[in-house]
Write a structure and sequence with these properties.
247 residues; mainly alpha; 0% strand
């Protein structure tokens, strides 16, 4: 008698988490990971630049970029829906974070001592030459300046949230209007367009942020944030407009 072959159990559908779980757990961790990835990418780009593209500038390159970005923050963000005096408040926050992370911790003093006190640094590293201390000094100082740059740009992104909220609201209204016209007319419904546009929403949100945070030179925020907001709005509008007719 032939043995009855047992059919493997059907695969269990992947459990989808609700909006509250994503809002309180998944999305904050994803955002934190994106910020850390942008910081790491910024450091790698700066190290490559010091090694190959601007070796004569060294850490002065990132220091100049930091000064320019702080100037834009002070001049351009005099008003905000989130803070009464954003330039002064945020500059104070950045100064406090810099003081706590690099000055009070003794990291900046150690870097400067290792750069100027060749004998002490060479004793710590035993057989390493004093010239290596000066070489590493540029990379260590660049790490500090790039971290401050990313912090300034994150602050500018937070202060620019009303721009993205406005783009999302306008896109939702326009998309829902187009969807209603398609529902009550003889419009063509394409699930292909909907799924592709839905995937584009995440890319339209993440790519401009990573690009802005990792840009190696001083760049005016509107040159990336405005196109990023428009791209996000277009992706949301197409997704909403192509959503299925009947729920």
């Amino acid at each position: 008698m032939a043995e009855i072959k047992r059919q493997p159990p059907p695969p269990q559908p992947e459990k989808k988490h609700g909006l509250l779980y994503n809002l309180l757990w998944a999305w904050p961790w994803a955002l934190l990971g994106m910020l850390l990835a942008s910081l790491l990418l910024s450091l790698v780009i700066e190290y490559i630049g010091i090694a190959f593209f601007w070796p004569e500038l060294g850490s002065k390159h990132s220091e100049t970029v930091m000064s320019t970005e702080l100037g834009w923050l002070s001049r351009e963000f005099t008003r905000s829906l989130l803070l009464s005096d954003p330039a002064v408040t945020v500059t104070g926050w950045i100064t406090t974070a810099y003081q706590w992370a690099f000055v009070d911790s003794g990291l900046l003093a150690w870097i400067q001592q290792s750069s100027h006190d060749g004998n002490a640094f060479s004793r710590q590293l035993e057989q390493w030459h004093v010239g290596l201390a000066n070489y590493l000094h540029d990379y260590l100082m660049a790490t500090i300046w790039v971290t401050v740059i990313v912090l300034v740009r994150v602050t500018i992104l937070v202060l620019s949230l009303p721009l993205f909220v406005m783009a999302v609201v306008v896109a939702l209204v326009e998309g829902l209007g187009r969807r209603d016209l398609r529902r009550y007319g003889a419009g063509y419904e394409s699930s292909f367009v909907y799924h592709r546009a839905k995937k584009m929403v995440k890319s339209a949100f993440a790519i401009p942020i990573i690009l802005y945070l990792s840009w190696p030179t001083a760049i005016y925020p509107n040159l990336i944030l405005l196109p990023g907001a428009l791209l996000l709005g277009m992706a949301i509008m197409v997704t909403t407009a192509s959503f299925k007719k009947y729920l």
